[in-house]
Amino acid sequence: MIVPELLSPAGDRERLEAALMFGADAVYLGGDAFTMRAAPENFTVENLTEAVNLCHSKGVKVYLTVNTLPRNDEIILLPSYLEKWADAGVDAFIVADIGVLSLCKKYAPSVPVHISTQAGIVNYVTANEFYNMGASRVVTARELSLSEIAEIRAKVPKELEIECFVHGAMCVSFSGRCLLSNYLVNRDANRGECAQPCRWEYAIMEVKRDGMYFPINDTKEGTYILNSKDMCMIEHIPRLVEAGISSFKIEGRAKSAYYAAVITNAYRTVIDEYLKNPSADFKAPQWAVDECYKVSYREYCTGFYFGHPNENAEISFDGGYKRHYDVMAVVKECRDGYIIAEQRNKFCKGDTLDALQPECKPVIFTAEEIFDGEGNEIESAPHPMMTVKIKSDLSFPKGTLLRKEK
User: Fold this and answer.
1) From residue 355, how far is each of 66, 233, 283 by CA, in Å?
2) pLDDT tens per residue, range 10-48
3) Read out DSSP for 150-212?
4) Nearest to 317 by CA among 213, 221, 232, 197
């Protein structure tokens, strides 16, 4: 049995630290160019070197995304770019373009190369050819079923790792390649600038009836005909392991540190529980499954893993994200009968809070008494980033998230 790696997104230093604290085996992140997520802060060479050292001190690997499709005028910038990031100590480059792959092997030969889902790998012949070209891992297209992934595993060298997305947003286009954003707002989805027009609200307008809009189905919110559901495979970890997947990847470099923490923690818990007792009747702990509903999410599905969703199209018709919990504060320390925390959202005396710490079931408690940083009792914590003290005999590690249900 292959022991799977848990690979978490890290859009910036805060998200990186959240993934580390809550159990990632590896993180993937972007530099200051050639990355498919242009919106997050990403990393410069200087702060990535620090991040790599931090990750390596905890036994966590760092994979750098170089997965855009560079144009002629950008190619000349790649050799020096690859060399400096190799010097920063990254553990692999994630690439989608064959030309970029060749440059990686030439200018940074010591750094392993992973082939991005953008390459659209759907069969073992393609996977083998990438292996022959020097790739150490392939990230399969999201369009594959578990049986197809298992067949690829059986027909490629055992040294070739297979990485698959197990959680997060899914693009409506094949393996993330889309031109809608280019056409509508001149933001190239294949260069990290996708405006997500597939999530927008659409209606039909007849050309001679300007301003008269006809919704495709009759709801007050409109119609989201391209709005794909989010993937969630947390209840199917045994099937993913059985298929021989080397790395379980969580989507979400553009999402919050809170998202990185909660989803990493949930999958870490279920993976570890299954590896302790890999029985045929394994069932994920319900509290860990419930955690997936405590972040912003769209309606969940299992994508194409269990066959083509032709009877239940994986389209979400209700528009935006669902969100049922907010972070109220982050624990700094616990001492002398107090939880000392840094406020994130307003909460009040008497509120019921949910404390999430790594690989533990959340602890529910009531904030009976609240004090400000100077020790004055207060009725609420209204100011962002203020230090608050909550009277409690409970003790949590630094970084524990204090949440409140909406």
Assistant:
1) 37, 24, 24
2) 999 999 999 999 999 999 999 988 886 666 678 888 899
3) HHHHHTS-TTSEEEEEEEEE--SSGGG---HHHHHHS--GGGT----GGGS-B-EE-TTSTT-
4) 221
Separation between Cα atoms, residue 121 and residue 142, nearest integer Å: 9
* Under 8 Å between Cβ of 115 and 104: no
C-alpha distances (whole Å) from 175 to each of 141, 189, 301, 304 are 5, 12, 17, 12
Dihedral (CA of 115, 120, 155, 152) sign: positive
Which domains does the chain possess? 5-174+230-301 (3.20.20.70), 325-405 (2.40.30.10)
**Bridge-partner residues for 342, per DSSP?**
330, 387
pLDDT tens digit sequence for 316-340: 555 567 889 999 999 999 999 999 9
Cα three-residue angle 356-358-360, rounded to 5 degrees: 70
Which two structure tokens, joined as six digits, stand for 316? 């979400």
Q: Print the SS3 string covering 292-309.
A: CCCCCECCEECCCCCCCC
* Alpha carbons 373 and 341: distance in angstroms, whole number: 10
Residues 401 and 358: beta-carbon distance below 8 Å: no
Answer yes or no: are the C-beta atoms of 19 and 260 closer than 8 Å.
yes
Phi-psi region of 222 (alpha: psi -120 to 50; beta: other; left: phi over 0): left
Structure tokens at 375: 């020790």
Residue 346 phi, psi dihedral angles, 5° rounding: -65, 130
pLDDT band at residue 171, thresholds of 50, 70 and 90? confident
Radius of gyration for the chain, computed over Cα atoms and rounded to the nearest angstrom: 23
What pLDDT, on the 0 to 100 scale, is given for residue 173? Answer: 74
- Count of beta carbons in the 10 Å neighbourhood of residue 86: 17
What are the angstrom distances between the C-alpha of 254 and each of 119, 184, 396? 21, 21, 28
- Residue 218 — pLDDT band, cuts 50, 70, 90? very low
d(CA 43, CA 84): 13
